[in-house]
Write a structure and sequence with these properties.
Strand order of the largest sheet: 1-12-11-10-13-14
Keywords: Nitrogen fixation
CATH architecture of the largest domain: 3-Layer(aba) Sandwich
InterPro entries: ChlB/BchB/BchZ, Nase/OxRdtase_comp1, Nase_comp1_CS, Nase_Mo-Fe_CF
Mean pLDDT: 89
Helix content: 40-55%
CATH class of the largest domain: Alpha Beta
Number of helices: 19
Family: Belongs to the NifD/NifK/NifE/NifN family.
Strand content: 5-15%
GO molecular function, one term: nitrogenase activity
Protein name: Nitrogenase iron-molybdenum cofactor biosynthesis protein NifN
Low-confidence stretches: 164-184
CATH topology of the largest domain: Rossmann fold
Number of strands: 14
Length: about 475
């Protein structure tokens, strides 16, 4: 059984984790026409905005209530109302996602009541969905903030109750009056991706589901809003992602699929509200996990996997045969959020590598019990550097580059933020193709950093044998 050691330091050195409000903001950015609103000081928002812009290399519509010293003492309801009305007037968003920060949360204000009062008194001026996610900085980490925002959107926007079944006579009439050229109505599948899925991952996931004739509704869908496209005009809100109407109609899906342990609560909430059953995939990386996912899609759709999916699976099998020589016996050190730690730890150990160091941000996730490591440290990148000596590869985000330089160990950049390399959001890490690409990337790093014997060393060894 894995041992999880709590954080013991009184100060963080070279932080590993990002805060809950930032995770919630990232989730709200996956909704079309949305603006995340940090309820707190300008400094809290500025720091999160810098990380988002450096990571995505895009304009990010992140706003703040700009609480000052007076609002901190007497309460920030006035600042919250003013910010919401200003956003509606200037940007006209479809959704305003409020992410509370530690500054506002420490006063124990009733934010839900404040928002209800604003909606009652300013009903004619609003016309937008206002979703509250309680995400104090002093608790949790990025993945918990993401999950809370998704759960809040489902609770606030999704219509409760199942779609009313039609009578047999109504179905017969519909078939007899429907034009033959009209396409058949596809089964809808609700997908709740974890924060650790990249833009390319979500786009590839959609293509996989659609290849079975199913209609995926992905919440949140950052592949539509943060995919690096250039709009033809300035947009004060997100210009892609899941529509509010799609969130409202999540209850008409035949199946919900969650990716990552932190998406269990939103999936359970959707099931409770609408009756849509859910299945949770703790990882979509690795042959066994993807096979299970493909089998589920085949079962839902009633059709077998298309030929191109079989071809991708065969390519992954070949990559595993080609690459496993480079992974066997390699020592891996990973620092990441719990679900991403599990994703990459199972990937490397499945190819014959060994986990020598595992550091994560929070001990609240149940997935930590399944991580294939002897121990896990809750800590920062300072702890990671202390534990990772002697490893063959470090796996973490861009803030781990200094530790990699000091230790002289190559770094595989994953997660958030990744700001010192281009194209991080277009890197595939899931399904057959993503697993194949990860094998090639890691194996190439191993090959580029292996110490081959030089002629001088070989000659010295030969002379030593001859002397003996």
């Amino acid at each position: 059984m894995v041992h999880v050691y709590p954080q013991t330091k009184s100060a963080t050195v070279n932080p590993l984790k990002s805060s809950q409000p930032l995770g919630a903001a990232l989730a709200f950015l996956g909704v079309e026409g949305a603006v995340p609103l940090f309820h707190g000081s300008q400094g809290c928002t500025s720091f999160a905005l810098v990380l988002c812009v450096r990571h995505f290399k895009e304009t990010v519509p992140l706003q703040t209530t700009a609480m000052d010293e007076l609002a901190t003492v007497v309460g920030g309801a006035g600042h919250l109302e003013e910010a919401i009305l200003n956003l509606k007037e200037r940007a006209n968003p479809r959704l305003i996602g409020i992410c509370t920060t530690a500054l506002a949360e420490t006063r124990s204000e009733d934010f839900a009541r404040q928002i209800a009062n604003i909606e009652t008194m300013r009903a004619e001026e609003l016309g937008a969905e206002i979703v509250l996610a309680n995400t104090p900085d002093f608790d949790g980490a990025l993945e918990e903030g993401w999950a809370k925002a998704v759960a809040a959107m489902i609770e606030r926007i999704t219509r409760p109750g199942q779609q009313a079944p039609r009578s047999k006579r109504a179905r017969v009439i519909e078939r007899s009056t429907k034009p033959r050229e009209q396409p058949w109505k596809r089964k809808k599948v609700a997908i709740l991706p974890g924060w650790h899925l990249t833009v390319a991952d979500i786009e590839h996931l959609r293509e996989m589901v659609e290849s079975f004739g199913l209609k995926p509704v992905i919440l949140p869908d950052v592949s539509g809003s943060l995919d690096g496209t250039v709009p033809d005009r300035w947009m004060p809100v997100t210009y892609g992602g899941t529509s509010v109407e799609d969130i409202q109609e999540l209850g008409t899906a035949v199946q919900c699929i969650g990716v990552g342990e932190h998406m269990r609560r939103p999936a359970e909430l959707l099931q409770k509200l609408t009756g849509v059953p859910y299945i949770l995939f703790q990882s979509l990386t690795g042959l066994k996990n993807v096979d299970r996912f493909v089998s589920l899609l085949s079962e839902i759709s009633g059709v077998s996997a298309p030929a191109k999916i079989h071809r991708c699976r065969s390519q992954l099998q070949d990559a595993m045969l080609d690459g496993h020589f480079h992974f066997a016996g390699k020592k891996i050190a990973i620092a990441a959020e719990p679900d991403q730690l599990y994703q990459f730890a199972t990937f490397f150990t499945g190819l014959g590598a060994e986990m020598v160091a595992a550091v994560t941000t929070t001990g609240a996730s149940e997935i930590l019990e399944k991580v294939p490591a002897e121990s896990i440290q809750i800590g920062d990148l300072g702890d990671f550097e202390d534990l990772a000596g002697g490893a063959d590869l470090l796996v973490t985000h861009s803030h781990g580059r200094q530790a990699a330089e000091r230790l002289g160990i190559p770094l595989l950049r994953v997660g958030f933020p990744a700001f010192d390399r281009l194209g991080s959001q277009h890197k595939l890490t899931i399904l057959y193709r993503g697993t194949r690409d990860l094998i090639f990337e890691a194996a190439n790093i191993f090959q580029a950093n292996q110490h081959t014997p030089s002629p001088e060393i070989v000659d010295a060894l030969r002379k030593r044998r001859n002397a003996g």
